[in-house]
Amino acid sequence: MILELIDGKKISAEIKDELKAEVEELKKQGKEACLAVVLVGDDPASAVYVKNKKKACEYIGVKSLSYELPASTSETELLELIDRLNKDDSVNGILVQLPLPSQIDENKVIRAIAPEKDVDGFHPQNVGALLIGEKGYVSCTPAGVIQLLKRSGVSIEGKECVVIGRSNIVGKPMGVLLLRENGTVTIAHSRTKDLKDICKRADILVAAVGKPKMITEEYIKEGAVVIDVGIHRMDNGKLCGDVDFDRVKDHVSKITPVPGGVGPMTIAMLMNNVVEAVR
Asked: Which of 16, 97, 118, 228 is catalytic?
């Protein structure tokens, strides 16, 4: 079996180039895209994400506004800022970088963002729209996984798809999106009995379990397509995913590397949602 790496960097670059051309067209029609990014506190990983999001905005020609607030910011102050951005007609998208400091209720913040500006796709209204197949923003990581599969020539229709993980941000919407593409979907998690046997049925396995290198060859059907959503920094400073790449690679037909797989796609799909807000 010849292993094929699914190159998230390459595919995300293609998507960003398509969006760049579209943004130029929209500008000719007098329509300008603008994303407001809010960062509270100084979490280093969050700061890196925010920097990458700004770079992506710059590349495709989207205006970005940056609000970097101290870790001591109160919930009321943050909600007031969101309210101002909701009312600002020049802002198409609002993104509040998670996690937030402990004094702020994340759920309240997610619900405070106007659904039509919720480019992260986390607002209950957008999640509900996804579930019943109506228009709305789809959370960026699962949307990115679908693009990775489609643009790598993987047909989802009729396939056994197993998602390991049931978070609101990845696992649950991932299951719904695979179902929308006519996959047969099982959502498994840490409490699932016979997890290895269930995963071994999967033609397409999406690992979003949050445990480094948990998925070994014992979980893999020969020739499966494996998408690794996890990202962890090991003691030696190297990054790894939820999948033990070295143990799995000889058993799969296609797999995403970590880094360079799903990660770049999340930002590409965020940009897609920002442009969607202008469309």
From this structure: 97
